[in-house]
Design goal:
Chain B: This is Cytochrome c oxidase subunit 3. Chain B: It is found in: Cell membrane; Membrane. The complex is a heterodimer of chains A (about 90) and B (about 210). Chain A has helices at about 5-25, 30-50, 60-85. With about 90 residues, chain A is mostly helical. The longest helix of chain A is centred in the C-terminal third of the chain and has 26 residues, at about 60-85. With about 210 residues, chain B is an all-alpha fold. Chain B has one domain (about 15-210): Cytochrome c oxidase, subunit III, four-helix bundle (Four Helix Bundle (Hemerythrin (Met), subunit A)). Chain B has six helices and no strands. Chain B has helices spanning about 15-50, 50-60, 65-90, 95-125, 140-175, 185-210. Classes of the chains: A mainly alpha (about 90), B mainly alpha (about 210). Chains A and B meet through helix 1, helix 2 and helix 3 of A and helix 1, helix 3, helix 4 and helix 6 of B.
Chain lengths: ~90, ~210
């Protein structure tokens, strides 16, 4: 089993992000903690999508198809927050 | 090492088009999975906005280090699966099958750890299952734990499907039942599913275990 170095580097980055999210959650509180931890989660997801899920090699159309659901969710969360935050 | 020349099947005119169609179909299917879990995350967001103190208290009661361990296991399994795809693309059947099997084992490790964690939570009265003796201080905390069971349970079912998928594909790949390179897309599509299950956990972990 030959190790592929770019894939291994991505794994190292993912593990570092995991450690940082645990450390951040133990030292931060409130909305700032949530923001930092979600940012780290998005960074992990981006690494996985870009390198492990081949978005790096795919066409623009495939990238759009892969990320569209994220876009729809962003709209859902935007209007959901507008509702609940402004009550 | 290509075993057969890469040829497109009807209705596709060239291999690249066939590949693009397969990838797009899989990405769209995964999009439907994202929407499914997105609903759960939307509820999590609303109860966090309405009852921040209750949610933080509930989240603190969860075993965040066990969750971190399991996150590490899943991220590592994703690396195994990505390596399997790399090996498959290079025509290295045995290596590809070994990586797939390693990922399936990592998936099983995740489920065993999760089962142990559920057991601990059950004994601590945190798990709102039928017949369980639970003690929640407030209704939002009960709701948060309901959502936790729903999210992690649905995720575990997805992972189980992934384990079955990889366990079937690994011997097929090893013993030449998957014709390479043209049917290598099977391995790529299964890998995409596995990675998405990982990505979903990447969000479940901070939202449920790390709310502070």
């Amino acid at each position: 089993m030959k190790l592929s170095h770019p894939l291994l580097l991505v794994w190292v980055a993912l593990m570092l992000l995991l450690v940082s999210t645990v450390v951040a959650s133990q030292n931060l509180t409130g909305p700032f903690s949530l923001a930092v931890n979600l940012t780290i989660a998005f960074a992990k997801a981006a690494l996985i999508y870009w390198f492990y899920m081949h978005l790096r090699q795919e066409s623009g159309l495939a990238r759009l198809a892969a990320l569209a659901a994220g876009g729809w969710l962003a709209i859902l969360f935007l209007f959901l927050s507008l509702d609940y935050v402004t009550r | 090492m290509a075993e057969t020349p890469l040829a497109a099947r009807p209705p596709y005119s060239e291999p690249r088009q066939q590949h693009d169609a397969a990838m797009m179909g899989m990405y769209l299917f995964l999009g439907s999975e994202i929407m499914l879990f997105g609903g759960i995350f939307a509820v999590a967001a609303v109860i966090r906005i309405l009852h921040p103190a209750d949610i933080v208290e509930s989240s603190r009661a969860l075993h965040y280090l066990i969750g971190a361990l399991n996150t590490g296991v899943l991220l590592t399994s994703s690396f195994f699966v990505a390596s399997a795809v790399e090996a498959t693309k290079g025509g290295r059947r045995r290596a590809g099958a070994t990586w797939l099997a390693a990922a399936a084992v990592a998936g099983l490790v995740f489920l065993v750890v999760k089962g142990y964690e559920y057991g601990a939570e059950y004994r601590e009265g945190l798990l709102p299952l039928p017949g369980a003796d639970t003690q929640f201080r407030t209704a939002p905390q009960h709701l948060f734990m309901n959502l936790y069971v729903l999210a992690t349970g649905l995720h575990a079912i997805h992972l189980l499907i992934g384990i079955v998928l990889l366990s079937v594909l690994a011997p097929c790949l090893a013993f030449g039942k998957v014709r390479l390179p043209d049917r290598g897309i099977l391995i790529i599509a299964a890998a995409l599913y596995w990675h998405l299950v990982d990505v979903i956990w990447v969000f479940i972990y901070p939202v449920f275990y790390l709310a502070r």
